[in-house]
Write a structure and sequence with these properties.
Distance between the termini: 23 Å
Oligomer: single chain
Structural class: mainly alpha
Number of strands: 0
Radius of gyration: 16 Å
Number of helices: 5
Largest sheet: none
């Protein structure tokens, strides 16, 4: 729900171009990057870390480093935003966001799962 909801409210909107802009202009506007990190990236990372910690505590997720897991949860979503805003307009290859995120969730949940298949 978090990942698909995030895509609907952020990733699929014009706001998804902000990371591309910040990466490209970080040297010119370091104070803006620091603001974005403090107000968007760090709170988002804290939420993902808390979700992983809760899943571990409930026995739903295997024991792993929650901080690193949170980074790995977010990385494919950032990649999708960067792809769509910077590379896809010039590419013949198109990513279907719904299929991409469903695949991400499948791999993610199997990797986090405490249950052995």
């Amino acid at each position: 729900m978090l990942i698909l909801g995030w895509w609907e409210k952020v990733g699929a909107t014009r706001m998804s171009g902000i990371p591309k802009l910040l990466c490209g202009e970080s040297g010119n506007f370091p104070e803006l990057v620091r603001f974005y990190l403090a107000e968007v990236v760090e709170p988002g990372h804290a939420v993902l870390t808390a979700i992983v910690k809760r899943g571990i505590a409930r026995g739903e997720f295997r024991d792993l480093d929650p901080e690193q897991a949170a980074l790995l949860i977010a990385a494919p979503m950032l990649q999708l935003m960067l792809w769509r805003s910077a590379l896809e307009p010039q590419s013949t290859y198109k990513i279907d966001p719904q299929r991409y995120l469903e695949s991400h969730l499948d791999v993610l949940l199997r990797g986090l799962s405490a249950k052995k298949e």
